[in-house]
Design goal:
It is built from 15 helices and 19 strands. The chain is an alpha/beta fold and 473 residues long. Strand 11 and strand 12 form a beta hairpin. The radius of gyration is 23 Å and the shape is elongated. The protein binds ligand BES and zinc ion (2 copies). Ligand BES binds next to helix 11. Belongs to the peptidase M17 family. Presumably involved in the processing and regular turnover of intracellular proteins. Catalyzes the removal of unsubstituted N-terminal amino acids from various peptides. Its main location: cytoplasm. This is Probable cytosol aminopeptidase.
Length: 473
Amino acid sequence: MKILTNDKKSDLEIVLVFNKKLPKNLTKTQKDALALRDYKGEGVCFIGEQIFIGVDSYNYPFPNALRDAIANAIPTIKKLNIATASICIEDLQSAKEVCEGLFLGDYSFETYKSKKSQSKLKTIYLHSKTIESRALQAVITEVEHICISINAVREIINTPPAIATPEYVANMATKKAKELGITCMVYEQKFLEKEKMGAFLAVAKASSNAPYLVHLTYKPKNASGKKIPKIALVGKGLTYDSGGLSLKPGDYMTTMKADKSGACAVLGILEAVARLELNAEVHGILGLAENMIGGNAYKPDDILIARNKKSIEVRNTDAEGRLVLADCLSYASDLKPDFLLDIATLTGACVVALGDYSIGVMGYNAKLAESFNKIAFSAGELSATLPFNPYLRKLFNSDVADLCNIPSSRYGSAISAGMFLGEFVAQELQQKWLHLDIAGPAYVEKAWGVNPFGATGASVRSIVEFIKHKIKD
Ligand code: BES
Ligand code: ZN
Ligand code: ZN
């Protein structure tokens, strides 16, 4: 689907209905047609060459009414025998939201379907009485860059685990980096051994698919000499999480191809940042491995030595993400970034706490977490802070090592997992670090908002916006 700015005559006019208030300038025929269908401004109603889309109103802060309304209407519009549709926009913010609803709501994972869905709809025209067409075009282009990146992330995450192995994701990163002109280093197992990444290596041991650490670097081409922010992003890239010897029950194992969502999001953020040519230095570190079972699998009772020399008692091999991230966070700390963010489908507990729709935001800098939440909200993603406290920190003390990979209580374990990660962030970066748990929103089995079935690309929009803010600050 293409979005263009012009006011050419289209096959279908999309009319937005806010707060159930139908437009005043309707003709008698239109009014009669709507009355006949008993349309009062909720949901979608189709009359002649017009489709009315009701935008829900809420009496609490919610960023996505317009995005969701547009995304929800897409299937209906695509079924019509039309090639073009047009929509009139009042302001730049609505333009952005409409474009996001269209680009993100239009994705579907059909690579393995013999029969692909077909639609004649090719182009949506955006026009406005109040906005200059150049400004409108700029918004469309920006949203398109971000959404192309998000849909690419979704496609990799949705790819089945037999294909999307650590090597596949690493190759994908190499290919993308080449296209985008950014640096991509792919490090193999030997490098992990040299770096003494004992935690990461243990997780990967039982898989016949070798682990990789990918380090992407984006630097703006015409750096102005002015200091630019340096941001390091670390992504959990478990291309499959069977749980390892602490094997997951069958029901919980399905969808675990999506345990690579953090790493894929990081790849997508680098793609978006490069496409937008943002004025920041951005590093993406992808910890890619598969958590499997086998004769040489790591075991509950093992004691691992992480890159930063801390010893970790393993009590549950299903708490593997934090082990991979531990070594990646230590590696990323050496880059001395201004901000360090990790993105991970880390805990089921985060989903229990916040629901399927929100990102859990954690860290030692409450102000930074709050500012992230505001930015995420403006970008159309839901998030909430889960606050650290010293009682939860104590829960992963070990009798035989420096730390234990699971806490002694399952209550609050999204937070204790976050605090575990903090042990591997360099001291001087503690205030510059945020942990984002995307276990809830990364993958959906029932479409919601702008997210069709499958991977969503959660956190990409928020973090791109976060980077943009750090450039301005
Ligand atoms: N990848 C899972 C977390 C997860 C759960 C992601 C549901 C997406 C949806 C993670 O590796 C895991 O298994 N965590 C365990 C930790 C426990 C063993 C302390 C969990 O959340 O149950
Ligand atoms: Zn696990
Ligand atoms: Zn996992």
